[in-house]
Amino acid sequence: MTEPCYYKGVRGNKPYRLELMLGIHILQNHYNLSDEGIRNEIIDSRAYSDFRGVESSNQIPDGDTIGRFRNLLIEHSIHEQFFALVVQSLKIVN
To answer: Which residues of 65-88 are buried (b: 16+ CB within 10 A; e: fewer)?
Structure first.
């Protein structure tokens, strides 16, 4: 759902892995954190960084990038579809 509208990196900076951005989005929503708040938690918390598979703060997007990604999901009506899939996946596991 997200890949067709996600930044391709044709110009400018290389994009962050889509899996990383989606995982950050899940954590941000689950813990109701701001864009900068989730970035700081991933840097400060070993559990957060292990969950996202990052080893240094250089691998974590800044708050503006996280916010642009969130807005991209909302703008393309992907946000609710994405979380519906997450909920469905969790129901299958149980």
So the answer is: bbeebbebbeeeebbeebeeeeee
